Amino acid sequence: MPHCHATSNDPVLLDLHSVCRCLYLGFVDVEWSVGDTAVERAVDSLIPETILESVTCDQLGAESPVQYTECQLQVSPQEGILLTDLNRKIFFQRHLSSPSIVFVGVDPRDKM
């Protein structure tokens, strides 16, 4: 996962065009939660164990509780976030528009 911690109002996220690689673990609706609480809730629903290792997921294959894929993550102030599945394992591309992004963060517990 990319190591960034910013709200959608943070100039670091909005003013820069950024590209990085990350692991896509899934999409979770966190309802009205925001901040670290939302990230923790999403990670807990995607990773049922206390710590996840990619070796475990790879060994279990389709039986793994987590299906992940390596993605390219592009951030643009006008366009939002574009995820491209580099292996086309789960999807080809997913787009999240800027108005739909409330918070961007990394699990503070470093569960992955």
Automatic annotation (TrEMBL):
InterPro entries: PH-like_dom_sf (IPR011993). This is Uncharacterized protein. The lineage of its organism: Eukaryota, Metazoa, Spiralia, Lophotrochozoa, Platyhelminthes.
